[in-house]
Amino acid sequence: MTRHLRSLLDLSAEEVDHLLDLAAKVKKDPADYSAKLAGKSVAMIFAKPSTRTRVSFEVGLRQLGANPLFLPAGGATGLQLNRGESNHDTAKVMSRFVNAIVIRTFAQAQVEELAEHGTIPVVNALTDVYHPCQALADMLTMREHFGTTKGQTLVYVGPGNNVTSSLMLAGPRGGFDIVCGCPDDLPPDPKVLALAQAEAEKAGTKVTVESDPIKAVAGAKVIYTDTWVSMGQEDEAKALIARLEPYRVTNELMNAADDDAVLMHCLPAHRGEEVTAEVIDGPRSIVFDEAENRLHAQKALMLLLMGGASWS
Ligand code: CP
Ligand code: NVA
């Protein structure tokens, strides 16, 4: 059966554990995996900008012996998708040429449609709704820092967005609690919140919302923030920045969390907006370990999805 990563709902808690174990091995002994995907090609369709995701997928796939094809969705030399070719036909054609699709786009439905109509794995490299590859790297980083993700409390501070949604699903998969410190008028996606709470109940973890940032971070092991203006929201930037001022991660907010709390951020960061320079550039920040782990977590993911490693 062809497996995908449309969202973290595509992976069980056991599979996430297994993937993170593999990621740690790949990180430690990369040479052991250097030919595991030899002869395979991956279409990397990007409809939004990227630094980390693009580079970590391209480099990671090459390190596994695969051939990544960077394909801008739009522009004069972009894919025919941009001129109205359907997801259906794109999926069927890509399935004849390549062994997997990695896609960063706007609509989650586009990821779902490519997966539905193709015969190859489809990986969500960020949509307006989810960013599952980021959450896998985040869990790898938490494991490294705390020894386990289990029993931790991660508090997301900022506007509800795609990163928030993937973290809400990561909690139940990784056995940790999630608190969304989001303003009432910029809440986490209500449908994903309901899904995540149902998953959390099964997993014995919690996903809650607390709009007061100081109250939200009480007991946090991780304070996590993201840009206040996501890609595609540029027209609302001024209003978002003004509204989110009380949600800036400062030393004062860090001090209201657990004594050993760390800062995580998916990046790109905007110093002086969602986080102060002294926090993100200070001793409690693990954001660059987190960025590096995109590479290792995605290499493990692609090995599993593309037959370079087994699921058990
Ligand atoms: N965190 C992340 O996805 O970064 P990029 O937008 O640079 O890929
Ligand atoms: N929420 C951000 C994440 C960037 C990696 C965005 O969608 O732009």
Protein described:
This protein has 312 residues and is an alpha/beta fold. Helix 6 runs parallel beside helix 7. Helix 7 links the parallel strand 6 (177-181) and strand 7. The protein is globular. It is 42% helix and 13% strand. It folds into 2 domains: 8-130 and 294-305, Rossmann fold, CATH 3.40.50.1370; 134-291, Rossmann fold, CATH 3.40.50. The chain binds phosphoric acid mono(formamide)ester and norvaline. Norvaline (NVA) is lined by residues 161-163, 226-227, 230-231, 266.
Q: How confident is the prediction overall: mean pLDDT?
A: 98
Derived structural class:
alpha/beta
CATH fold annotation of the largest domain: Rossmann fold
Uncertain runs? none
- Enumerate the strands of the largest sheet in spatial order, edge to edge or round the barrel: 7-6-5-8-9
Beta content: 5-15%
Count of all domains: 2
Supply the CATH architecture of the largest domain: 3-Layer(aba) Sandwich
Order of helices and strands: HEHEHEHEHEHEHEHEHHEHH
Percent of residues in helices: 40-55%
Q: Hetero groups bound?
A: phosphoric acid mono(formamide)ester, norvaline
CATH class categorisation of the largest domain: Alpha Beta
Number of strands: 9
**Shape summary:** globular
List the helices and strands and how they pair.
Layout: H1 13-28, E1 41-46, H2 52-63, E2 67-72, H3 87-97, E3 100-104, H4 108-117, E4 122-124, H5 132-146, E5 153-157, H6 162-174, E6 177-181, H7 190-203, E7 207-209, H8 213-216, E8 222-225, H9 237-243, H10 251-255, E9 262-265, H11 277-280, H12 287-305
Parallel strand pairs: 1-2, 1-3, 3-4, 5-6, 5-8, 6-7, 8-9
This protein binds phosphoric acid mono(formamide)ester (CP) and norvaline (NVA).
